[in-house]
Amino acid sequence: MDYIATYKDRFGVEPIVEVLNEHGITIALSTYYEHAARSFGPTAAELEDAYAANEVKAHALLGGAMSVFHDHCLLGSDEILDATTNDLSDSDLHLQPERVRLTPVQVSLHDMSELWSGFATGYRVSQAYEACVVLIDSTRD
């Protein structure tokens, strides 16, 4: 839309739209004129559709992550080594004698709201987990 607005006085709206459509960038003249008449961001309906789509994606993503955590609730040394190889290459967590257990935790609505307000963003669908046992060996003499 900005491209059309920038060059409309030089070439005209219709010729620009025709060229864009010929090159696979489909846009209707009515769409441009509606957008130009608003002269600002998306409509309320467009925002509602975008937020709804994002919520569906957020639920699907959370469901997928929860499924993985359910299937792999006990992390052994091989899984820990795979997870730490790239970003934590100096980690020796995989050498611990105990496995790490991932357990879903119920968090009150108040506590979850407090958590999300700490992120300075709106609440998103979420699930808390507890990860334990991690043995910490001191490196002090």
Walk me through the structure.
This protein is mainly alpha-helical and 141 residues long. 54% of the residues lie in helices and 9% in strands. The protein has helices spanning 2-11, 13-22, 29-38, 44-71, 77-84, 109-118; strands at residues 74-75, 100-105, 128-132. The N and C termini lie far apart (66 Å).
What's a concise summary of this model?
The protein is mainly alpha-helical and about 140 residues long. The protein is built from 6 helices and 3 strands, in the order H-H-H-H-E-H-E-H-E.
Unreliable sequence segments: none
Q: Which structural class should the secondary elements be placed in?
A: mainly alpha
Tell me what portion of residues adopts beta-strand conformation.
5-15%
Report helical residue fraction.
40-55%
Q: For the largest sheet, list the strands in their spatial order.
A: 1-2-3
Strand and helix layout:
Elements: H1 2-11, H2 13-22, H3 29-38, H4 44-71, E1 74-75, H5 77-84, E2 100-105, H6 109-118, E3 128-132
Antiparallel strand pairs: 1-2, 2-3
Helix pairs in contact: 1-2
